[in-house]
Amino acid sequence: MDILKRLNDKLPYVEQYYNYLTAEKGLSEYTCRNYLSDLEEYCYFLHKRKEQIENSTEGKLDPYKSKKYTMPNADWLIIREYMSSIFGEYVRASLNRKLSALRSYYRFLERENIIPYSPMMRGSSLKNKKNLPVFLSESEINKMLALPIDNSPGSLRNKAILELLYASGLRLAEIASLNKEQIRPNDYEIRVTGKGKKERAVLMGQAAMVALQTYIEHGRTQLVKDISQKALFLNVKGGRLSRRSIEMIVHKAAAAAGITKDVHTHTLRHTFATHLLDNGANLRTVQQLLGHSTPATTQIYTHVTFKKAKMIYEKAHPLAGEEVKDEQT
Predict the structure, then answer these.
(1) What is this structure's pTM?
(2) Which of 6, 33, 191, 195 is catalytic?
(3) Would you place residue 304 in the very low, low, confident or very high pLDDT band (cuts 50, 70, 90)?
(4) Catalytic residue at 317?
């Protein structure tokens, strides 16, 4: 990994830390790369501040101050200074991830007795705004799935991806990493490995399975160049289809269907969950299908379905009046 090479001279024990994240914590390569990227940005900040102080009058009067702007010697005040310097550049979720990366790395150094204690304040984080997830109506998703296709391998593949995303609620990383052997057509089921390397069964309906089988039998056979290739969804060169390509397939399909919302793969995951709850599924079942570790993560979808229930109530109940106060807000 290129970022590991760049950080070798900047971060102590960075390769051991990377092994700790993957082997002990079970984090995905994508998450590990984000953590290392966040640490690289923090290193750049420390380096620049150290240079500024060394070249200033302040640094000449206090030669020890610049030494605080190194990874092992930084304290909470310096971390706060760093966070303040980037506060306007990122959304709260990204800022919290950067704090999490720092907390994780310093905790690792503390555990390995490389530093006496972590400078991170325990539990320090920014409160995230609870934005309701964007999802498609049944009419909108039906328009996407009803787009005309031809018999080209790319068209069959794209159809299978759209059907599978809506039918299963898979994450982008999960669908991109699917291998052919994970499909269990007789059970209408896929075995996937999600966040934290947790395996779960994902269900799908007949429409998705038909689209998937059609792609495997008539599309994938034309795309595959090497019989040992395990990836389910392939590009024109016969390699695994990238996450970026899958996102583009979804984005283009939404535009072709005349949908004006900003649609991503996660939009279809939100749509999957919302439609299940709207049609009577209980929260525990949806939590299990989505692969959420706690019900709290799934809880946000109940706010969406409550809004729909409120609209139906206002239209249907004779004594509802013009407006019903939303007690959930």
Answers:
(1) 0.61
(2) 195
(3) low
(4) no
